[in-house]
Specification:
By secondary structure, this protein is an alpha+beta fold. The protein has 2 domains: 16-164, 2-Layer Sandwich (60s Ribosomal Protein L30, Chain: A); 175-412, 2-methylcitrate dehydratase PrpD. The chain is built from 18 helices and 8 strands. A 6-stranded mixed sheet has the order 3-2-4-5-6-7. Strands 1-8 form a two-stranded antiparallel ribbon. The chain is globular and about 65 Å long.
Length: 431
Amino acid sequence: MNLLKEVLAHEVYPALGCTEPISCAYAAATAASYLGEPVEELLLRVDPGTYKNGAAVTVPHSGGVTGNLIAAAMGAVLARPDAKLELLGQITPEMLDQAKELYGDERCQYECLEGSGGFRVEVTVAGPGHRVCCVLQGGHTNVVSVEKDGCSMLDSRSRAAEANALAYRSPLKEATLVELLSLAARADADDREYLRRGIDMNLAMAERGEKMPGTACQLRRIHARGFLGDDLFYRAKLLVASAVDARMAGVSQPVMTSGGSGNQGIVAILTPYVVGREMGIDEDRILESIAAAHLVNAYCKCYVGELSVICGCAMAAGIAAAVAIVYQQDGDNDERITLAVSNVVGDLGGLICDGAKPGCAMKTITAVDTAIRSGLMALEGFGLSSADGVVGTTAEDSIRNLSRVTLEGMLSVDPTVLRILREKDARNRGL
């Protein structure tokens, strides 16, 4: 098994819009494609992480509407899942009108799967004569079940393929970071071209966000007033924030994800890209470092979860970017990789995720700052020791400790965040 190719295939892909709402659209489109008649009823049920990540993010081509339910309604009307997480690019104004009509109807329902662990989206659509349920689990496009009127629509070969789709995660979780970085150095021509495509896509999104109001605009204003210098840190944060501002505003343009997350893809790709370019690193080495970042991001998510209580952009992608920066100048040096990971974990451990939203740009610039600082300090031989909080004796130990804090120590965070989001929603609707 080629772990790099598996990660690139299953966790690094283009996505048009925030991946949680778009996965709801994909599940609905898949279900509707089997229905064979117009959708008259829709029930969307999602895990708590997907619920919070869809609460406040604008869905592309929705006319400025936020949330998972409008995305599911759009997918149900479209009924064409072939484009996967870029499918909403096919929505026409007429389709949007139909989706909004369905969305505003009491026959369109939305529920949170309380207590559900891990990523899960269930969409049931019904017409005059049939009912279809599609279930995604473990990954944003990983269809594990499609049933029409109670009968499975997936043949045995399809079911076996879906069951094995995430098999790579077991050896990935057992690997060391040094072993993963050795895979990055063996990226072939196809891998490198795909990595270049990811850079180009995310740079293009950053360009779309340059003129938008938001976090990046505020960084420019602070710089113009003389309170921020025009240095490597500023330029990297500005680029990342611009891309995230545009994406969270629903700009109709895809980004390349990492770990199935667009914002994590922006951090994990653009941070080492900017650092490498400004430090004169060879292009092939930069591409390898981004491959390393994808592998490390995927590794971290094996421990902290697909949709975590903690901010994946800060923790998983921040760790990945810091390791990539070390890799650019010092390869798979285990000691310095450990120092970089220790620095990020010691700095940002416990930063919560309260859903996808415009404010994610604020957290991503924190992640960028910490990643660059942690990587550069590690290259100088400096890092937090195992005597410092939850930092472990190895990079892997630190990530496992972070996982324990997340999965054992922060169990009440997501339910609390969900209650706050629901209360805000009820107030906004005057309930």
